[in-house]
Amino acid sequence: MDLPAGAARRLLCPALLLLLLPPLLPPPPPANARLAAAADPPGGPPGHGAERILAVPVRTDAQGRLLSHVVSAATARAGVRARRAAPVRTPSFPGGNEEDPGSHLFYNVTVFGRDLHLRLRPNARLVAPGATMEWQSETGTTRVEPLLGSCLYVGDVAGLAEASSVALSNCDGLAGLIRMEEEEFFIEPLEKGLAAQEAEQGRVHVVYRRPPKSPPLVGPQALDTGASLGNLDSLSRALGVLEERVNSSRRRARRHAADDDYNIEVLLGVDDSVVQFHGKEHVQKYLLTLMNIVNEIYHDESLGAHINVVLVRIILLSYGKSMSLIEIGNPSQSLENVCRWAYLQQKPDADHDEYHDHAIFLTRQDFGPSGMQGYAPVTGMCHPVRSCTLNHEDGFSSAFVVAHETGHVLGMEHDGQGNRCGDEVRLGSIMAPLVQAAFHRFHWSRCSQQELSRYLHSYDCLRDDPFAHDWPALPQLPGLHYSMNEQCRFDFGLGYMMCTAFRTFDPCKQLWCSHPDNPYFCKTKKGPPLDGTMCAPGKLRPGMVAHACYPSTLGGRG
User: Fold this and answer.
1) Active site: which residues (predicted)?
2) Beta strand segments in 40-150, E
């Protein structure tokens, strides 16, 4: 029996190396249970077939005059003083913050014979106030630290303002992407952790130039659409989710965003395969840079809407939990597992700073057939269970997969499948069935813009502004960055930890430390831990207010 017109579009919208659906398809699941899959983006991570050179970027003023060899924010904050040039008026550039021109940064770097003058402004709306990063261990314990996004920047290349974009972090050297005209570059420090040497001799970076994109290979693979996620709705019922929560306006203690502004507050789930590949020391910087790029993709004017992608929480999963969520070769079950996990991480209080609208899950495990890079429910945004995506992480080009899958959750279809935008696929449209967008050429098709506008106003959860609280933000106290054990190590040396042999003292009033070799011999500096230290369950060491405790959920209302 022939399928009715549009039946393929109502199914999973598979996108693999061969963009053909099987000739015989099972009955389509309910429309609100549709899924979408994205295929492998061309190119792969930087360095896979890319040319590379060494470069030493320098910090300059707005006119390109040398200020310092120091490019890392951490080094500058540590007291390395830059040589000051004569005062000049900072010229404006697209997207710049005219109210605070002093927040702009300028760098010169020579790449493949071209002298580039980078003009950057802070991306102050990527990490929400009170956002946290959680490390989950095999033993079930969780280490929580504040998520700081103060070294993330976006901008352009001088002289190419309309044909370039830059998304970099300067936490430890410069890391990120530079795209201009028909070229794209990725820059990162040659070696990590050498920021202290920058002041005298600069910092050597590696710059990769991606080769011209080759046409994608085609093969016989096609997604078996039989295992659909129609059971996400039954999962909702099993978890006791009331449908009224989906479209009801959350009464949150935040001011609403401007009428034309939308904020997708994101829980970023990261499995152990990603952490191991990038390293525990560098994974946070990598994730922030990746999401900085995703945010820039959603800021492209072709989208026709003002959408911010805002991180409220990152969770790094243990090995065991990671393996339990991803079923190799079973994308439907893997996505269901991920969506269930994300729902269970949700904060019960909608006023909480870490309450998320949407979950993005990254893995390097092969959850689907060869070439599958993403999987997501269509039009699931704001739903407690279905607002989630599963993404194969494969370097910074994965930003386009994340943007593509989130586009499906916002209601966008594949270009050329059920709409008349197939002509835009070869031009690098984000929602192409085979993700061919690249850093030097990408846009949202006219169909994506129309489909987004059809649904966007119904997503009430995107209307509040996480940066516009009605209460003052808590100060960044020094103890927020160091645990009790770390402070013991600073005070008494390697191996020292908080003394747990005796329970007769209040750790919030006096810090006692001991060594594992002699745990009953406890030492103290006769002082409390640093202000802001998590010193007891649900308590932080008070700051300026005597005998007060901040909620352990920083910035929350609970």
Assistant:
1) 405
2) 51-55, 58-60, 66-68, 105-111, 114-122, 127-136, 142-146
